[in-house]
Amino acid sequence: MSGKTLAEKLxxxxxxxxxxxxxxxxxxxxxxxxxxxxxxxxxxxxxxVTGDDGELFAPDRTVFTIDHHAxxxxxxxxxxxxxxxxFAAEHGAHQFDVGDGICHAVLVEEGFVGPGDLxxxxxxxxxxxxxxGAFGTGVGSTDLGTALATGELWFRVPKTLRFExxxxxxxxxxxxxxxxxxxxxxxxxxxxxMAAEYAGSAVESLPIHERLVLSNMAIEMGxxxxxxxxxxxxxxxxxxxxxxxIDLGDAFVSDDDADYEAxxxxxxxxxxxxxxxxxxxxxxxxVTEVAGTEIDQLFVGTCTNGRYxxxxxxxxxxxxxxxAPNVRMVVVPASKSVxxxxxxxxxxxxxxxxxxxxxxxGCGPCAGYHQGVLGDGDVCLATANRNFPGREGxxxxxxxxxxxxxxxxSALYGEITDPxxxxxxxxxxxxxxxxxx
Length: 437
Prior knowledge:
Elements lengths: L5 H10 L8 E5 L2 E5 L3 H12 L11 E4 L9 H17 L2 E3 L6 H7 L8 E4 L13 E4 L2 H10 L1 E5 L2 E8 L8 H12 L7 E6 L1 H4 L3 H9 L8 E4 L3 H11 L19 E6 L6 E3 L7 E3 L10 E5 H4 L2 H11 L9 E5 L3 H10 L1 H8 L2 E2 L20 E4 L15 E4 L2 H10 L16 H5 L3
Parallel strand pairs: 2-3, 2-5, 3-4, 5-6, 8-9, 8-11, 9-10, 14-15, 14-17, 15-16, 17-18
Antiparallel strand pairs: 1-7, 12-13
Helix pairs in contact: 2-5, 6-8, 11-13, 11-14
């Protein structure tokens, strides 16, 4: 029998079975998460399952965030926020409030998730946690509500698509460009209910904040999970984040003879910066094909590219410069820690001097609720993960997706610009951890 993929190993451990792709397993959940949109419905299911005296399966490993409609943009949003606060307080769960940040950033920064964990979140981008070697996946509010009571959930063990990138990336090419290229190659549904596994020397050289980008957008090609095998870089990152010694062992690496649905290989040096055209992430093209497209708004943030290192890439490009006339830039850090680091290092000042508007930590206009939604005919270049019609506002607006470097370069000229035309920087894992005491 062939060896196992990373996904098969993780679900084998959590189910206590010899799990193979296609099997159905009942697995133990390590961490469960919901936010202000999905939480209230999950709470209803939890109450139906447990009755009046229900208890969470593990309050210390249950996390709720208020991040989507944050601050509240209407009475219903405010009521949902209160429902989250009340449920978390009643059951002793962890709860992060308005301005604390996006669920996927907070769970990683605060050390809730580790390699080998099974993490479920009532949000589709819960695949993010695969960037540190966890099996993270999104579930519906009903499934989450049941798992909050039982600590278990069933899964069909996914097949795996493997993406191997070897060599050195060009200056101006980042993980966001890689994942847009992958999605463009296999299509928006090309990885449906499969795990996307990212490997190769170029992926191994990526800092953790960029690996999280790859895993985050696995769902944009239909992926059940997006996985990067943890390594010494993962150990060092988590030790800095948690203050605890991490020992990965060798349990979470795919076997050499593992069976993959398909393997896609890339030469890193040949990959150009990518832009996904409206209105689907799969519409990925080399930046040169859309260079010169005029833009009205630039959006930097989201659970994909709202980390400190992402925003610093933009700030370094704009340092001493101003945003092009008639173009607006909205910056929304992914967490309060990112916001504070921006203040403490001068990044905040650089961006505001350049003309950017900086919001409190959260999802911002990513899902078209508030804090910078688009009007009819507006064209936006965003570091977000989705660009469907109406995703960031008007159904008549257009959203292009790119890396922070491409957004920064484009801000200088008011049109989509190849980041290789300006100086860009890639930051390692110590930048966020060490810039402030």
